[in-house]
What does this fold into?
Amino acid sequence: MSEVSRQDSDLLSIVSIFHYVLGGFQMLISTMGLVYVIMGILMVTGAMDSAKGEPPPPELGWVFGGMGVVFILVFLTMGILSIKTGININRRRHRTFCIVIDSILCMMIPFGTIVGVFGLVLLTKPETAGEFEGQEGNKS
It folds into this structure.
């Protein structure tokens, strides 16, 4: 295969930066789950009781808290995996891992889709595939 052009190398570096930024945003968005966790805690402890009407049942508090925890875990995990993918692309290692994570990112509309598609386009090009460790006998 031909050697990676300077343009493809620069594009891989840019996609790597996009993964860092997306991962940071995903980790920031995960903090929104704290709202549900706090609401769940308030419902379970009875702090949301008011004199005007029926207080919410404590079971609803557990549901809210559980949803918040799941939300936090999903977005934190995806943020960490996005940043790890950016590091791997920058170091030109673990191409298969990068392809899998970019495929998952495509489901996160709109920004994950943009980053995932650009990553997949570059990672599946034969010219850039040779850059990664263990690909076509080329160890970097």
